[in-house]
Design a protein that fits this description.
Blueprint: H1 4-10, E1 12-18, H2 22-34, E2 40-44, E3 59-60, H3 65-75, H4 77-98, H5 100-103, E4 110-114, H6 125-131, E5 142-143, H7 147-151, E6 160-164, E7 168-169, H8 172-185, E8 189-192, E9 195-201, E10 206-212, E11 215-226, E12 242-251, E13 262-265, E14 270-277, E15 280-287, H9 293-296, H10 305-319, E16 327-337, E17 344-349, E18 352-356, H11 366-377
Parallel strand pairs: 1-2, 1-11, 2-8, 4-13, 11-18
Antiparallel strand pairs: 3-7, 4-6, 5-6, 9-10, 10-11, 12-15, 12-16, 13-14, 14-15, 17-18
The structure holds flavin-adenine dinucleotide (FAD).
Length: 380
């Protein structure tokens, strides 16, 4: 049973955001910016954020050439251009909000490796650059095949490289920690280990029922916001958001690594980058979900041995041929996917809003979706 003091000071807020990922924390910050006097709490079931935001690859990316072509086929040119614009704007908000050092931002560019099977995409560069001309200060994509040899990639597979000068990379852990610190500084109450088990609607408030070990607690809010990404279907199954696991591995430091930046191939199903660590430059490689879509539609934070094996093979044969390294870390993370591949910011009840971004590309978009979600919660 709660004491009077606990009940009075800890259990009622104007806005409660569920989920302390990039979207949840950005939403909370935007709410505080718009309504400084309001009380805002973020409920996170992990002791630290345990969603995609702290387990991703840290690409601050807008979509590679073939991803954009594929998105245009699914959603049309206008919606795809709008999404790229929102990503570019979102990254700008994140960098201004935290500063580059606090999010470990580096800009070495983004590179897409093209193979025999999709090298024809090069013919579309001009059309896509034209479609994106109002977003970027200069052409979004250009062909840089000279880099194949310079970067030492296996030439039997890589036929062309398309570079985007504007893509960058972050340190996902540092960025999320800085975002949490900033939210706290701005007066947002962060409650960790707060697992929301059920949500009830009353005439004047929404009730969020929490569980932590054997304890339970009910929190009331005038408005609740779900930023629970892959786990949103627990509370809003009608939105059709599904989990999709991503596998990652990281190498030991590699002497004289010839490249820096974020790299994509196979329509973004694979991605790798350099990670600057105190011991030297490492490579992070992730992806391979397309090898086993069924098994990877899960929320289990475990490894898929077959996919990890394929990642390691690609690393040794195509990305770092003839270099010696070991695999020092492997992990997985859970993305949320929706068939439309477009963000969802929607009021699903008089007192409940959902902010969902990202289909595997939420770093750049997160701050913009957070601002949209806050506006929706404010009824604007
Ligand atoms: C392996 C991998 C690699 C990726 N690489 C990139 C990349 O390089 N670039 C990029 O842009 N994007 C990448 N992404 C996608 C990106 O990480 C996500 O789009 C983004 O982090 C989503 O943010 P979010 O705030 O919506 O969700 P999340 O970060 O998943 O946050 C949701 C939070 O809600 C909490 N939660 C859920 N249910 C409850 C509940 N009932 N009660 C309380 N708390 C709850 C979770 O614990 C979690 O912390 C990657 C994702 C993965 C998994």
């Amino acid at each position: 049973m709660l004491s009077y003091w606990e009940q009075d000071a800890w259990t009622q807020y104007d806005f409660v955001v569920v989920g302390a990922g990039i979207i949840g924390l950005s939403t909370a910050l935007s709410l505080k910016e718009q309504r400084p006097q309001s009380s805002v709490a973020v409920l996170e079931r992990g002791f630290i954020p345990r969603g995609a935001s702290t387990r991703n690859a840290g690409f601050a990316c807008f979509g590679s050439l073939t991803e954009i072509l594929s998105d245009m086929q699914t959603n049309g040119e206008e919606a795809t251009v709008r999404l790229v614009r929102a990503r570019y704007a979102g990254l700008d908000v994140l960098r201004k909000r935290l500063g580059d050092s606090a999010c470990g931002y580096e800009q070495h560019g983004g590179f897409e490796l093209l193979f025999e099977s999709n090298v024809a995409a090069l013919e579309q560069i001009e059309r896509i650059n034209n479609a994106l001309r109002d977003i970027f200060p200069s052409a979004a994509f250009h062909e840089r095949n000279d880099l194949i040899a310079e970067y030492g990639f296996g030439t039997n597979r890589v036929k062309a490289i398309v570079k985007s000068d504007f893509e960058g990379q972050i340190h996902s852990g540092r960025m999320m920690r800085s975002l949490a610190v900033l939210a706290q500084e701005r007066g947002v109450m962060l409650l960790w280990g707060a697992d929301v088990q059920a949500i009830d609607h009353e005439p004047t408030a929404v009730q969020l029922h929490l569980k932590h070990n054997d304890e339970s607690l009910t929190i009331r809010a005038a408005q609740a916001v779900l930023c629970t990404n892959a786990f949103t279907s627990t509370f809003a199954p009608e939105l059709g958001i599904k989990p999709a696991r991503g596998q990652i591995l990281m190498t030991s430091p590699i002497a004289d690594l010839p490249f820096r930046g974020v790299f994509h191939f196979d329509e973004g199903f694979y991605y790798f980058r350099n990670v600057s660590s105190p011991h030297g430059e490492r490579i992070l490689l992730g992806g391979g979900r397309n090898l086993d879509f069924d098994a990877e539609e899960t929320t289990a934070l475990t490894l898929n041995a077959a996919i990890q094996q394929e990642l390691e093979r690609l690393l040794r044969e195509m990305i770092l041929p003839e270099r010696s390294f070991t695999i020092e870390q492997r992990w997985s993370g859970i993305m949320g996917f929706h068939a439309s591949k477009l963000p969802i910011v929607r009021r699903t009840h008089e007192r409940l809003v959902v902010g969902f971004a990202c289909n595997g590309m939420g770093v750049a978009l997160g701050s913009t979706i957070g601002a949209d979600t806050a506006r929706c919660a404010l009824g604007e």
